[in-house]
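User: Can you predict the 3D structure for this chain?
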Amino acid sequence: MYSREEKPFGKTWEEWTAKWWQWLLSIPRDHNPGLDQTGENFDLNQIDPNVLFLAGALAGSGPVERTITINTGKAVLFPVINFITSYAEEPSLKSEEALLSYAKSNIDDISKKEANINGVNFTDLEKYRVQSKVFDVTFPEGNVYGLRPGPTMGASDGYWIFLKPLPGTYDIRTAGSCLSGRITINVMLHLDIKAM
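Assistant: Here is the predicted structure, written as structure tokens:
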């Protein structure tokens, strides 16, 4: 796993997590990997030559269990629990500072965040909290939030895991919930990375 101080492939974790959100939100609801229960849509629009993005479960999609097989050679980035907001979702937010503050306040509200790989729990997830800068987002027709399609600006916050490109089989479990109890996310991934 990459340390929080590393810049995988020359980009910060903040830049990578923004790219992850741009990827996820660019895919219409009907095929969005964040709503996929099995893992069949995991590779849609995966265009980065170095990093594979794996979706968590979008709020409201319930617990999910996915099985994914890939070839080695790519790092893997996925959330434990995360949040994004944008001017399109929250028109009352009028500045970059407001976007950043709103995203931060939602992750500050997290009461549970857990991750383990092959039965080994992460005990230091606080180190892997990533608060983005403001970045471009484009919602397609039929997007996951039911918003008017088009460009906007967003900001994100959350807890992440960034695996180095190594072969192996990984059972990954992530879970999170907020203090208000409005959001509970549970994901189990069976990730099989084959040697090329």
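The chain is about 15% helix and 40% strand. The chain has one domain: 8-194.
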